[in-house]
Amino acid sequence: MALLQISEPGKSTDPHNRKLSIGIDLGTTNSLVASVISGEAKILEDNNCRLIPSRVLYEQSQILVGNDIPNHALTISSVKRLIGKKKDDIDADNIALELADSNEIFIQTPQGYKSPIQVSSDILKKLKKIASDYFGDEIYGAVITVPAYFNEGQRQATKEAAKLAEINVLRLINEPTAAAYAYGLDSKKEGVFVVYDLGGGTFDVSVLQFNEGVFEVIATNGNSSLGGDDFDQIIKNYLINKYKFNSQSLKDQAKLNLIAKDIKEKLSSQDTINETIRFNNLDYQIDISLSEIEKLFAPLLDKTIQCVKNALNDANLSTDEIDGIIMVGGSTRMPTIQNHIKKFFNQNLLNDLNPDEVVAIGAARQASVLSGQANDDTLLLDVTPLSLGIETMGDLVERIIPRNSTIPIAKAQEFTTYKDGQTMMKIHVVQGEREKVSENRSLGEFIVKDIPPMPAGAAKIKVTFQVDADSLLTVSAEEKTTGIKTSIEIKPSYGIEESEIRKMLEDSFTNAVNDKKFRSLAEVIVDANQILELTEKAIQDDKQLLLESEKSTIERCMNNLKSEITKKNTSKIKLATDELNNASMSFAQKRMDNSIYSSLTGKNINEINK
Ligand code: ADP
Ligand code: MG
User: Transmembrane segments in this chain: where (predicted)?
Assistant: First the structure.
C-alpha cells in the first residue's frame, strides 16, 4: 500500500541512477535482509546464516547483534514488543527491563540506558552492513516491514530507528502485504487472501483484499503472546515430566529451551526422534513420536483457529470466499499447523516459499520497484491509494490526481483568484475522497505570493501535482503572467495507516449523497457571496448612478440573498442570486456605459478608433 509522502523542494529523486535497495523483515524473533539481484529476490546471508536473531548484546566496548552473540549470553530480545510504546502501555512484569522514572521505556545496559528505538536501530545497522558488505557499495534505501496492526506511533518509532541506523526508508509496508507480494499475488486482478503468520512469540492473522492494484488489510487478529516459544514450552514440560530432565538454574532452563526447540523443529521433517541427549553430564535416551506431541499442541492450534475465525468474522467473509492462504513465520513449518489450516479452509495453502523468508522477499521486491531498479517483468502495479487535490473556495476539494492512478504520474490544472486585486493564494494540499476539505487528510500548504493585481478570475495559477515512483508528491504553482514558480514549503508528511485509508474510502461511499449536496450548496454560496461583494462595492463606488427605487430593490434582494444563505437551501439561494442579478442588471449596464463614457471623455475620434 502506498504511503504518501511530500518531498522537500529539490529533493525529488532521480530514478535512473544505480540504486541498491533492500527489503528488511525486522522480526520479533528473527530479522532478515533481502535484495533483488538480477531480477530475483535473494536473502543476503550473514556468515552463511539467513536468519539474524533479533538480539543485541551490549558490552562495555562493543555491541553484538544476532549470530555474533556467543551461545547462552543474556541478551536483549523481542524489543519489537516495546517499540513505539510507553511505560503505561506494557505489562512490565513480563519483560526483563529497567524502567527509568519517566514514562519512556529504557533498558539498562553496560553502555547506559537504551530505548527500544536504539536497540532496534542496532539490529538495523547490522542488517544494513550485511547488505553493504555483500554489494561492496552504499545502500540507497530500504523497505522495512511492520505488523499490520502497528499504530502510527509504532510505525514512526520504526522509522526513527531506521534513521538512527542511517537507512533511507523507501516505505514501511505491512508484513502480510509483503508476503502477498512475494507470492506475486499482485499480478492477479483481484482477490481476498488470508495471511497466517505464526512466528517465535507472536501470532498474526490478516485478511487482505487486492483490488485494482492495491492491497488493503481489511481485518487483523492475533495473539501477541502466542508463538513458537509456546510449543517449545510444551515439549520442555514433556521432557521434564516423562524423562525427568532436571532444570533448576536459569541457565539450565535456557539450555533445556534450546533442546526443546531443536526437537520441535526436527519433528517438522521427521515422524519420530530416537536419540541420546546429554544434559548436565547425564545421558537421556529419548523416544518421541510426532503424533504423541501433536496432541499436546492442539490447544495452541485451537487458539490460532479462533483468531482466524474472528478475523473472517470482522471481514464479513466465510472460508469459501478466500482465494488463497499464505503461510508465514517459521512455526508454520509444523505439519500439524499446515494440516489444520488446510482442513479449516478446505483448500491448498500457499507455502512453497520459506515461511520465515517470504516477508523479506516481498519487501525486497517492493524496494526494487520503489528505487526504480526493477525491470518490467518484476514491476508491481503501484497506485495512489487516495485522491490528491487542493482546497478551493467554499471549503471544497478539487481533486487533481484521482485515487488508483498508476504512479509515476503528473497532472496540472489552472486556478484563479476570487477577489479583485488578490495578490496571494493559499495552496492547501489534501488527500481523500470527500467533498469537504475538513473531511480529508491535510498534507500541507503553501502560499503563492506576488500575483499581479487583476480583476477576480483573471489571474491564472497553474498547479502541478507530481507523484514519482517512490510515492513522493511534489506540488508546484506557477503564476502564468509572471512565470514565477512558487517554491514549496511543505515538510515531509509520513504514513497513513491502511485502516485509515479504508475508513476514508468507506466514509466517502456512505456519505456520497450528502457530499454531493454539500458541494452544490457550497458552490452556490460561493457564487452568491461573490455577487454580494461585487454589488456592495459597486453601490459604494457608483451610487450616483442609482435611482432611489432601484437602490432599494437591489438592497432588498441583497438582504433576501443574505438571509437565504443562512438557511442553506441550495435552490432558494440560487433563486435569490438570480433575483439579485436581475435587479442589478440595469445598474450594471449603467456602470458599463459610464465607464466606457469616462474612458472616452477627452479623447478625439482618432484615438477612440485605435
Ligand atoms: P518472528 O517473525 O517472530 O521473528 P520467525 O518467523 O523467524 O519469527 O519464527 C521463529 C519461530 O519459528 C521459532 O519459534 C522457531 O522455533 C520456529 N521454527 C523455525 N523453523 C521451524 C521448523 N522447522 N519447525 C517448527 N518451528 C520452526
Ligand atoms: Mg515475522
Answer: none
Place of cell 442579478: 581
Q: What is the pTM of this model?
A: 0.63
What average pLDDT score do residues 371-400 get? 72
Percent of the chain with pLDDT strictly greater than 70? 87
* Residue length of the chain: 610
Last residue of a domain, one of 264, 294, 324: 294
Angle between the N-to-C axes of helices 175-182 and 358-370, in degrees from 0 to 180, rounded to the nearest 10: 80
Q: Cα(155)–Cα(172) distance, rounded to whole angstroms? A: 8
CB atoms within 10 A of CB 263: 20
In this prediction, residue 514 has a pLDDT band, given cuts at 50, 70 and 90, of confident
**Best mutation site among 265, 300, 332, 339 for ligand 1, i.e. most ligand atoms within 8 A of its Cβ?**
265
β pairing state of 472-479 and 5-6: parallel
Measured from the CB, is residue 399 less than 6 Å from ligand 1?
no
* Ligand 1 and 55: CB distance under 6 A: no
**Domain of residue 257, residue span:** 229-294
C-beta of 264 in contact with ligand 1 (< 6 A):
yes
| Best probe residue, ligand 1, of 356, 357, 358 (max atoms within 8 Å of C-beta) | 356
Check pocket membership of 354 for ligand 1, CB cut-off 6 A.
Answer: no
The secondary structure of residue 179, as a DSSP letter, is H
**Nearest to 2, CA basis, from 577, 494, 544, 509:** 494
Task: Tell me the per-residue pLDDT of 253-279, one tens digit each, with 9 for 90 and over.
Answer: 889 999 999 999 999 999 999 999 999
Residue 605 lies in a domain: no
Label residue 600 by pLDDT band (50, 70, 90). low
Neighbouring C-beta atoms of residue 528, cutoff 10 Å: 19
Convert the pLDDT of each residue in 211-225 to its tens digit. Answer: 877 788 888 899 988
List all residues 6 or more positions away from 388 whose beta carbon is below 8 Å from its beta carbon.
Answer: 4, 399, 400, 401, 429, 430, 431, 443, 465, 467, 473
Residue with the nearest Cα to atom 22 of ligand 1? 265
By annotation, the residues acting in catalysis are 25, 80, 175, 197
In the predicted structure, residue 441 carries a pLDDT above the cut 70: yes
SS3 358: helix
Distance CA 301, CA 309 (A): 12
Contact predicate 219/247, CB 8 Å: no
Residue 27 Cβ contacting ligand 1 at under 6 Å: yes
Residue 99 lies in a domain: yes
Contact 24, 143 (CB under 8 A): yes
Kindly report the CA angle at 511 between 507 and 516, in degrees rounded to 5?
A: 135
- Say how far residue 3 (Cα) sits from the centre of its chain: 4
Q: How far is the CA of 572 from the centre of ligand 1 (A)?
A: 68
CATH classification of the domain holding 408: 2.60.34.10
pLDDT at position 71: 77
Q: What residues pack around ion ligand 2 (CB closer than 5 A)? A: 27, 199
Residue nearest to atom 2 of ligand 1 (CA): 199
Among 510, 530, 552, residue at a domain's last position: 510
For ligand 1, say whether the CB of 145 is within 6 Å of any of its atoms: no
Report the pLDDT value the prediction gives residue 256, as an integer from 0 to 100: 94
| 301 assigned to some structural domain | yes
Compute the distance from residue 210 Cα to the ligand 2 centre, in Å: 21
Going by C-alpha positions, the residue among 553, 575, 563, 562 that lies closest to residue 532 is 562
